[in-house]
Specification:
The protein is 3% helix and 45% strand. The chain is mainly beta. Strand 5 and strand 6 form a beta hairpin.
């Protein structure tokens, strides 16, 4: 237990009783805004720090005429607000004087005129005095297993009975998750739960069918339970501790507190897909001799293969290519096709146009709504380039002599 303004602390006894000796405090230091009146917009905020204090508020216009008066009202402890201006007033400087007990404060306030549409109810507003709070201090109460509580008090004498609410929570270890590499850990804390497991209900915004997740008790932590849950972008079977989700999906979990409590607590998080990529194994493929290797990565799935679409400037229609999962490499796929100057062979050979061609790849991940398309601007496109055609004799620089030797001519054309 703690008194906020007096900075006094006490610990309850076994029966929950507590006490503060306010008489030992030499002075009460309230916050500056709590002691002194101040304006918030056109509202005057002021505090009565002693019970049965007389309050007088007078407002004068720039000619010295009293245009508003709130006379010698005996008021209880608390903080109040009022608009100390007449119902119909012009835009000008006003002098506002506030007497609270023996304290006198004077303020100069420039106030714009009230719009005509507001004047209908403005007179009623200025006539009413609103109490913001009657508190002179606040009890701050904290206890393990219960919700933290702030309890305003209107006097430093008397007895205050405070009831705490048992803290039952369900939470995630993160607010945002990406990909399916790592699980989401769900934690429940319920001081009334004593079974080996508790049930939580999980659902998502895009796939609202609820699934029951059994959380296991944490050893050495009574009332605390947790369970790692994995993600999948395809349909899952109930009870497999896997949540089906999609890019930018919201995940919700619910837990009903153990008896005698009846409340239901909730928590939510967001799942985002990791952006897949398709990239070449080299920057430029040359000629027709070597295959064109295509590498892809999608860390949102566990499929053994994926299908991409491949096209070129020569073959603008293109065809599908199957990429296989690399052994021991989660989410990594690879495949290859040949190149031809004549025509494509679906799934095997892509027709290219010399001297240089750009190959476009399109991949639709099941975790995303839009496909991933390779881009020459971003450096993810596959490039094919024709090699130089060469014809060379077997002797360079030294030349040939006489007629007894032969000249060997070699031509190289990788197309």
């Amino acid at each position: 237990m703690r008194l906020k303004n007096l900075k006094l602390t006490d610990t309850t006894d076994a029966e929950g009783n507590y006490s503060f000796n306010v008489a030992k405090v030499k002075s009460i230091n309230l916050p500056s805004n709590y002691e002194k009146p101040f304006f918030k917009g056109n509202f005057l905020i002021f505090t009565v720090s002693k019970s049965n204090e007389p309050v007088e508020i007078k407002t004068f216009d720039c000619r010295g005429k009293c245009v508003y008066e709130y006379n010698n009202k005996i008021m209880a402890l608390g903080q109040y607000k009022i608009i100390p201006f007449p119902a119909y007033f012009s835009s000008q400087m006003y002098i506002c004087r506030i007497n609270i007990g023996k304290s006198i404060s004077t303020y100069i306030k420039k106030v714009p005129s009230v719009a005509s549409l507001e004047r209908i109810n403005y007179k009623q507003k200025t006539a009413n005095l609103s109490k913001i709070t009657a508190a002179v201090d606040t009890l701050l109460i904290s206890r393990a297993g219960y919700l933290y509580k702030k309890y305003p008090i209107d006097s430093y004498t008397g007895t205050y009975n405070v009831t705490l609410t048992v803290s039952v929570t369900i939470s995630f270890d993160l607010d945002t998750y990406q990909g399916i590499d790592y699980p989401m850990t769900i934690t429940v804390k319920d001081p009334y739960a004593n079974s080996a497991t508790v049930d939580a209900i999980a659902t998502t915004k895009l796939y609202p069918t609820p699934d029951t997740i059994k959380l296991n008790q944490i050893p050495g932590s009574p009332g605390a339970y947790e369970k790692p849950v994995y993600f999948a972008v395809r349909s899952t079977k109930p009870g497999k501790d896997t949540i089906r989700t999609h890019d930018n999906d919201s995940i919700f979990v619910f837990y009903k507190a153990a008896a005698p409590l009846t409340n239901v607590v909730t928590s939510n998080a967001v799942w985002k897909a990791m952006t897949p990529s398709i990239r070449p194994s080299v920057s430029i493929y040359l000629g027709l001799r070597n295959p064109i290797n295509i590498n892809a990565e999608d860390r949102n799935i566990t499929d053994t293969s994926i299908t991409i679409h491949l096209a070129s400037k020569k073959d603008t229609v293109g065809f599908d290519v199957v990429l296989k999962l690399l052994p021991g490499a989660f989410g990594a796929y690879s495949g290859a096709v040949g190149a031809s100057l004549t025509q494509s062979v679906p799934g095997k050979v892509i027709a290219v146009r010399p001297p240089i061609d750009t190959l476009t790849t399109i991949y639709q991940s099941p975790a995303l709504n839009t496909p991933v398309i390779s881009s020459a601007f971003e450096g993810t496109a596959l490039l094919w380039k024709a090699t130089n055609v060469m014809i060379l004799p077997d002797s360079l620089g030294t030349g040939y002599h006489g007629t007894s030797s032969k000249m060997k001519i070699t031509a190289e054309n990788d197309h």
